[in-house]
Design goal:
Layout lengths: L1 H24 L3 H22 L13 H20 L3 H6 L1 H27 L3 H10 L5 H11 L5 H24 L5 H28 L6 H19 L5 H10 L8 H25 L3 H6 L1 H25 L4 H10 L5 H12 L5 H25 L7 E4 L3 E7 L17
Antiparallel strand pairs: 1-2
């Protein structure tokens, strides 16, 4: 157990460093954790390999307990993102969310597949896999950014999260239809999912009213049971564990999503312990030597993804009356990728659709797309006039958006928020 505790202290130390960096440089904690994971794997991995620090074999990204915490972090974070989808907002803005989500999937799916095949020279199957992996929008990154800024409480943020769901739903469907065979297990998963999703909105609030609000945290155990059970069924059916988690969050958005005390407790568990393992582990898989040896492939794929997202998303955003700054910010955040992108790349590698080198470039591109567009968006195009008001002793709180200051970028003086 000595090595386990030593690795745990190392990973939580990295998480603490990442949090401090996010505070000092005013970036999302998720992004700083990814960068810290990349640097740690490069620097500390070499130190451990040299044997200068006995008792620790390395970062241990593939250790079973780290993979469990990382996977749990992705599942619970995706559930929380789904729970943020206000049913009322989704009903009123379904055209906006569907339009943004579909074009955010289709444009990079076709564009990046074409670039991978005709520009880089990958095979047909590998190119389609690249299109799937780079068509995603990272719910984890977008939700983490929305939560830190308080935009998750606004109509703007909720509509973007709904669009992210449509985007990633298209990615999962494409991955399943193109590469994963439809088997009896798939049918069992679909039927069971429909039954569970239909019963949960009726069962959950009644169960919580009867047995909840106790120190034993029954609500958290109930939700984790659902998430783990449906994730196990999804992976058994060769689907993705985070997909049912997102759907459970959506169908419970009207109940669990409105229980702010429960959501805050789940956030404490998720952001305090689980997601640092997920984001740091994702960053640790970036092979800096491989990128240095062949940087052109990484740059071509990253530019292709961002360009395709921009060509597709920005005109649709403007069509739905987004101001210029909001349109650019939406486009950049929907250019991010992480969870489904890395899952798709790993699926391709494990099924021998792509090579180890192609996998490294895809994962590096996916993680690069999680960092670069978000940094640009928050540094230059953040619509600050949409941010909720700050209370001096409470920080960001739900409520109406800040009135638009005169002279704000992309806004005419005297305008109010949408």
């Amino acid at each position: 157990m000595t090595e386990v505790w030593a690795q745990a202290s190392l990973w939580l130390g990295l998480a603490l460093v990442a949090t401090l960096l996010s505070i000092w440089f005013r970036v999302a904690t998720a992004l700083s954790e990814i960068i810290v994971g990349t640097v740690a794997q490069l620097v500390l991995g070499a130190v451990f390999a040299s044997g200068l620090i006995p008792g620790i074999a390395g970062l241990g990204s593939d250790a079973s307990w780290i993979r469990f915490l990382s996977g749990t972090g992705a599942i619970v974070l995706t559930f929380l993102a789904g729970a943020e989808l206000d049913p009322v907002i989704f009903k009123t803005k379904w055209k906006e969310a569907t339009g943004l989500g579909l074009v955010a999937f289709i444009a990079p799916f076709l564009g990046c597949a074409a670039v991978a095949h005709y520009v880089i020279g990958w095979s047909g199957q590998a190119s389609w896999l690249a299109g799937v992996a780079l068509s995603t929008t990272s719910v984890a990154v977008v939700y983490a950014v929305m939560l830190e800024l308080g935009l998750n409480t606004t109509e703007f943020g909720k509509a973007m999260l709904a669009a992210c769901f449509i985007n990633d739903l298209g990615t999962v469907v494409a991955l399943g239809l193109i590469f994963a065979p439809f088997t009896f297990r798939t049918l069992v998963f679909v039927v069971a999912s429909v039954a569970v999703f239909a019963v949960l909105p009726w069962l959950t609030p009644r169960f919580f009213r009867a047995y909840g609000n106790r120190p034993s945290e029954l609500e958290a155990k109930y939700l984790l049971l659902l998430l783990f059970g449906m994730s196990a069924l999804a992976t058994w059916a060769d689907s993705e564990a985070v997909l049912p988690a997102y759907m459970i969050g959506m169908v419970l958005a009207g109940t669990v999503g409105k229980d702010h005390v429960l959501v805050r407790r789940l956030r404490t568990l998720t952001f305090g312990l689980l997601t640092p393992f997920y984001f740091i582990r994702a960053g640790s898989y970036v092979s800096v030597p491989a990128l240095v040896a062949a940087p052109a492939t990484f740059l071509i794929l990253l530019v292709a993804k961002m360009a395709c997202k921009g060509v597709g998303v920005y005109p649709i955003a403007r069509m739905f009356k987004y101001r210029r700054q909001e349109g650019v910010y939406t486009t950049l955040l929907m250019s991010t990728g992480l969870t489904f992108g890395t899952i798709s790349a790993l699926f391709g590698l494990s099924h021998q659709i792509i090579t180890q080198t192609q996998y490294s470039h895809l994962v590096a591109t996916v993680i690069g797309s999680a960092v670069i567009p978000t940094l640009i968006a928050n540094a230059f195009f953040l619509p600050r006039y949409l941010l909720p008001k700050r209370h001096p002793d409470q920080g960001l709180t739900p409520g109406q958006a800040v009135p638009v200051p005169a002279g704000a970028v992309g806004v005419e003086p005297g305008e109010t928020t949408r």
